[in-house]
Amino acid sequence: MQTIHHSCLTRSPHHHERAAKALTAETFTTRSSSPPKAKSLKHRAMMTMMTMMLSETRRRGVVGVVSLAQRSAGKGGGGCGRYASLSSSSSRSQNSSKSFSAKATRRPEDESGKNDETNTNTIGMFSKTASSSSSVAFSSSAGAFAGGEEGVDAFEGQEVIDATREETDGQTSIGQTGTVTSIQPGGLLVLEGLRSSVQLGSVLRFPGLQAKAILLSHREPKSFAMLATKLGAVHVPDSDNVAEIKVGDALEVEKMDEENKKSKSKAFQIPPEKDLRGRIVSALGAPTSASGFQSISEAYLSEQSGENLVADPPPVDARKPITTPLITGASAVDVLTPIGRGQCLLVSGEPNTGVSEFLQMSVSAQKKSNVRCVYAAVGASKEKSLEIARALNVLEEKNTNTSTTVVTVSKDATIAERYVATLTAFAIAEGARKSGQDALLCVDDFSGMTGFAREMAELAPDAKLDDESDENKEEIEGMLVSAAMAERRRFLGTTLQRVARLNDKLGGGSITLLGAMTHPIGAYDKDYTGSLNGEGSIDYMQKARETVANFESMPEALQKKLADGLKKKGEAASQASSITNYAKRNNQTSAPENAYTQPRPLVEEFMSITDGQVFIKDFDPETGWIWDQKMSVSRIGAPGQAQAFKKINALELRLQLMQSGDMSAYGKSGEEKRKLNAKSDAVGLFMKQTPGEVRSIAESFIGVYAMTKTSFAEREDVSGAKMLEFANACIVQAKSNIADVVESINASSIGALNAADEGKIAAVVKDVAAKMF
Predict the structure, then answer these.
(1) Model pTM score
(2) Which of 17, 86, 255, 533 has the smallest number of CB atoms closer than 10 Å to its CB?
(3) 8 A C-beta contact, residue 704 and residue 685
């Protein structure tokens, strides 16, 4: 039996309930809706913890009985004694909580029948009852607290309360059966009866029927599962045969050993990662071609030993610091927003800004590396999955790219199917990591995950959990957020936290995630604000004018000057915005991504969960991407950057680009501003790449080196186009004259650039400059 003290108490609602049930106490009953008033700082800290526990257990329909038994020889003591201990069994995993067996016993009395005089504070045991009210009792030996009745013992005559609950690792039959309460389009089942202890990803079966289902999630008292039909050796989502299942049908958790009722539940597995290389697969890992089925190994056919669809995130001690960069082929990302192997990065942009094209280019950039790639086409690009496969050379008839797998869904796929396909992509990447490989996982749309969370809330509503108001707050990860957001973050986190780099004992493999999310047109314009439904806007210029008018002590002439300046700035911004928005809407309103946009608050929620984000301002297939350097940031930073880029001081370059934008908007005209803007514009032109222009580390380094280590860009007679021509000429000559240096830079992203090699590059730049300027 493991003992957990109050200081170790977690803040998860599930942990609160578990810990509260395991407490021991002797209590007195009272009808009090709030805890008693704290008498000291120590007392207040304890009461705060109790209040938090009570609010969670009341929200989950649990009736609380709480006691503060302040025992002393005479009258009730004024201070809080030592804290009681919490007894529970072993710790809870991400997807299921370990069960416990706890007993609440009366405090032992001495031989004379009197209570022990030692000061003791305990918190009573919480238990399920049929009552809908929340009866909470607080007491002390001096008398009941406010609202209570003195001298009434809630546990009088009850010496032992057995709070034994089911085992949550699948080793008992309690909570292992359920019934179908609703059947949704696409084979999504809403269930009742299954305990939250049943491991996610477990196989569910229907007695007397051939149908199987996969447990996807819990939202008490409901659970959610996806029907699956066996197709040859693998399973596919069952959207055509759902008529076989009826509301009210019973189901049960399938066991690994059916003869042993205490056997663990059977986890659903897709085919092994190695069998899916160079293949296009459906939402549950089924190859879409006959040759793909032939590649499934005999071990999977006979033993069903593949990759778990759902897995727990690696614990902290299984992880390793990120020190190796992952090259995407885009100079703006590799130089200014570096990505490390094992990092989780959000990629966001408006519709038709080339987000999925950037993900595809990142996969193409791995051709000469040992990185295993998985591309999930589950959003707007699902209708172009075959085109994407051709672009990535995943052509099954030729099998030219054996390091990449494309996961796709049907054109009319439901939210649940898209969510399952995302899990399948994660499972394939985890299979590669398990064998010690570095994997790049690209998910072209996160709306399958966010949509499934929203769908669960609609199918299993909870008045408290679905309340987004400020009154219903909960602490999670050091933030005070609404209960709905806290639940959503936990749901999303269980999947996103599977991304990690493992330590050497576990093979040293990694998963790097590039996940895309499309935000609405204009969502990051200055005059935009909105809630989760994306509505609302603020006229910041009008607010500025009102602020100026409120300065009564300001001279009238100065007020007029400021007002005129704001008016001109507002008109210029409005005109520029109109032109920009017109062009955007003209090109973007018909884009398929519009059906998958996510409101700004949800995008920023993902930003706070991931390890950074890359924002794309605009995209033209002919000229390339325009990146938003202010919004783009990598929280891994220098450890995820190729060592060569440290020679060009990428951090300083990033700040200069940002400063140039600010000076253009707010700074005065002058020589300093002109030079900075000219240099920044030239670098910006070099950073614009078309989808087919994949740059190596050496190409990005030499191009930026030529731009920043010379002063030609600051000359008035040198245009940005001329500087772009200069940078490209330096790259070409370096690849021709110092091929060994170029090859050395590309071969080792973690190796530092030595002085001799830097000297050779500088000589090339000087030689090209002499010819062009």
Answers:
(1) 0.73
(2) 533
(3) no
